[in-house]
Design brief:
Blueprint (H helix, E strand, L loop, with lengths): L1 E5 L8 H13 L4 E3 L12 H9 L2 E4 L8 H12 L3 E6 L2 E2 L1
Parallel strand pairs: 1-2, 1-3, 3-4
Antiparallel strand pairs: 4-5
């Protein structure tokens, strides 16, 4: 299973990102997590991010204090358009 971890660039390489990866690893055994902060996807153009969403089976997203950033929102929309399962990380849970 391929999981795309949609989260704001401001959280790249942060404690919150690391915690999110840890939580996803617990919820999805043996899944390959595509983390855009580690996957050399840092582009102004969203195409590489959309391609990673398309390649994934599931998308898990993280917001900031209830706010979904534009980039994450576009990745979520792309996932819905492609019929992907979308989960939100809430605290220590993936819902």
């Amino acid at each position: 299973m391929q999981i795309y971890f949609a989260h704001p660039i401001i959280l790249y390489h942060s404690i919150a990102e690391n915690k999110g990866l840890e939580i996803m690893s617990r919820y999805f055994d043996n899944a390959n997590i595509i983390n855009p902060s580690e996957a050399d996807l840092k582009h102004r153009d969203m195409t590489p991010y959309y391609e990673a969403v398309d390649y994934s089976d599931v998308i898990v997203y993280m917001d900031i204090a209830g706010f979904v950033t534009a980039g994450v929102g576009n990745e979520i929309l792309r996932a819905f358009e492609r019929g992907k399962d979308v989960y939100k990380m809430i605290g220590e849970q993936v819902n």
